[in-house]
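Section 5.1 Outputs to date
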Amino acid sequence: MKQLSYLGSAELKAKIVAQVKAHYDADEIIKGKYWENGKGCCVGCIIHGNKHIRFEGELGCPEWYARLIDKIFEGLLSDEAKQFPLQISKAVPEGKNEAWWNQIKWKFCVFILRENIERVLLLDVADDLKKQVVDAIRHVLAVCQDAIETRAYNESAARSAESAAWSAGLAAAWSAGSAAAWSAGSAARLAARLAAWSAAWSAAR
């Protein structure tokens, strides 16, 4: 993804913000549908369609970003969801390149991983299992933090971290089967997916 955000155009950004604002004012931002009869979700109201890849060619924003805001939007409460497309349309500056977007991606991963470590530490699971899960998440976290500092994603380290996280997730699933153990396993599997996701998008670009 070589283009600049909003194609480097303040006019394009203003156009998209005004378009989304019009949908907001007309109560046309809805969950569950991309774009239909002049109404749609976050992605739909931004591009008037359902193809996430269009964000790259038309807006200079990476496809992963489109998929991420789509997922966040659908998980918000209705009132928050209606405000979200306008908020993120305004928040993205024009003229930002791929390196800037990568920093956003890795910082988002770091935030999620730290939240999951805190959550796992509070769970009522065996100490050895808790340590395995937390260590695996921290492994992925270290890869993302290194990417922020070096501005390069170490795919080999990411694959190793991904493998450790999947192993921790399976260990939790094979344990006593308590709700806490399943939660720990979910946190580990999410870490694995984040490692794989960042590695895949880095390789594709």
